[in-house]
Amino acid sequence: GTTLKAAAERSGRYFGAAMGSDRLTDSGFLTIASREFDMMTAVNEMKPDATEPNAGQFDFRRGDAIYNWANERGMRFRGHTLAWHGQQPRFWGSLSGSALRAAMISHINGVMAHYKGKFAYWDVVNEAYAENGSRRSSNLQATGNDWIEVAFRTARAADPSVKLCYNDYNIENWTYAKTQGVYNLIKDFKARGVPVDCVGLQTHFTGGSSLPGNFQQTLSSFAALGVDVALTEADVTNASTSQYQGLTQACMNVPRCVGITTWGIRDSDSWRGSENPLLFDRNSNPKAAYTAVLNALNAA
Ligand code: G3I
């Protein structure tokens, strides 16, 4: 394949990107997006604060604009995200206990009803674990330890056609406590029949941290539990070619690694743009890391 998507599709995988609605008027971005990518994610527009700014008042305008653009170009879609400690509606801040739990459930139902049958994946719960492998404390966690399970059960009932994902960062190193915490969550869900179909590893490699040699072991260990795995927000400090090559290769080596998404397309799109972590430069030219990824996809 001569594009990321064509190369990924050779092995039945996808290659995705994230975009904000502000990119819908950026012709440089849109040209690369439609040429190279076959999966799209909204950076902020489908988060709880964006889709339900006031209780029971849903606003899908910006999310729909991104979804429609991608869908019209034959791309599939990853929804991000339904239940998270971050970017919550302001009204959640004055709720707690059973009232907050009810608001979470009604939020999941409202958003998933709108996009029912349209998405390939939903990040149902995002970033619920702390670095030490225990639950991250948050207002949602304070509603009871079963909040994650309730979110997934609600999501399955709301749209049985979409794959339901748990998504987190710093779960790439197999021996890291947080990785083990999330692994045990998924293992428990599978044992008890709680609906979960995939684990998203955000794959933000920051501040000189290197690709863990056991990254592939992490992917295959999750996959062995009976879930898909995906690299959902990939970016790498200075777009190290060896790290991009390694993370792509690890995915290619694991049959249930279904695809890779980068968190933006050009360095100028990135939440950490000063680190130049993406596959395209500010002039929309592919970088050395692009070639490394393309070759690794084509070798599979
Ligand atoms: O839209 C407002 C704008 O009106 C205002 O003038 C401006 C001033 O600060 O803020 C704008 O909102 C910002 C928003 O991005 C849109 O640009 C928020 O402040 C800013 O906090 C928000 O950052 C987003 C971040 O999530 C928030 O948690 C990033 O764009 C987004 O890339 C990032 O994405 C997360 C994933 O969801 C989860 N994993 C980590 C990843 C990177 O942090």
From TrEMBL:
Keyword Electron transport: no
Tree of life domain: Bacteria
Enzyme Commission number, as recorded: 3.2.1.8
GO molecular function terms noted in the UniProt entry: endo-1,4-beta-xylanase activity; polysaccharide binding
Keywords, ordered alphabetically: Carbohydrate metabolism, Glycosidase, Hydrolase, Polysaccharide degradation, Signal, Xylan degradation
Biological process according to GO: xylan catabolic process
Family that this chain belongs to: Belongs to the glycosyl hydrolase 10 (cellulase F) family.
Enzyme class at the top of the EC tree: hydrolase
Catalytic activity from the UniProt record: Endohydrolysis of (1->4)-beta-D-xylosidic linkages in xylans
GH10 domain residues: 1-296
Protein name: Beta-xylanase
